[in-house]
Amino acid sequence: MRFVLIGPPGAGKGTQSVLLSEYLGIPHIPTGDLLRAAVKDGTPLGVEANKYMEAGELVPDDLVLKIIRSRLEAGDTGNGFLLDGFPRNPSQAEALETILDEIRQSLDAVIAIEVPDQEIIDRLSSRASCPTCGRVYGIRKMPPTGDGLCDFDDTPLERREDDAPEVVQNRLNVYREQTEPLIAYYEGRGLLRRIDGVGGTDQVTKRIVGVLDGTPV
Ligand code: AMP
Hints:
alpha/beta; Rossmann fold; five-stranded parallel sheet; 9 helices; binds adenosine monophosphate
């Protein structure tokens, strides 16, 4: 199974990717996490990408494509993969098609997770995540068991700098303007599946698995 999760910031892409990748036994490829790792390591790509990430803007396509191409060409994607946060605009979607053609693969589905704006703002204002495994917690609705520690690996949870309210608003605008057109793009290709992203984590996972089960591979 090869598929993409699309949705506004805070839709639950990161949470669902971790769960789905375990359930389906395929790697998940989170561009945001890969970029944040490059920023943390201080690589030239990370230094350049950070200028855009801090402002909630999209990182230029050429930088993101470098990361995606090398990740998709790694040996563990033969049985499938889950792309989280990529593509994020129509030109990245076209570049993805080219890369997949080159490695003789194609997408089976694109899942659009739909969540209303007010719910997104509420979620992001209380979100913390584990820098080690990527699990995401909502301090109000889905708190970790231990005080500020990841339930899975005990790493101290971190708040993302780009979850600051002024940056969140820009990320939502960027999503509407640049990423949302992908919904029509993939609808036109017969790949789009819409999922209601409101509800418990398990409920949303079940909805996605239900839709994927009905998807021919
Ligand atoms: P995310 O963790 O998916 O919310 O991504 C965090 C930030 O990383 C975004 O606001 C962008 O600045 C950058 N980013 C992640 N994925 C992409 C992408 N496919 N294209 C451009 N920028 C990206």
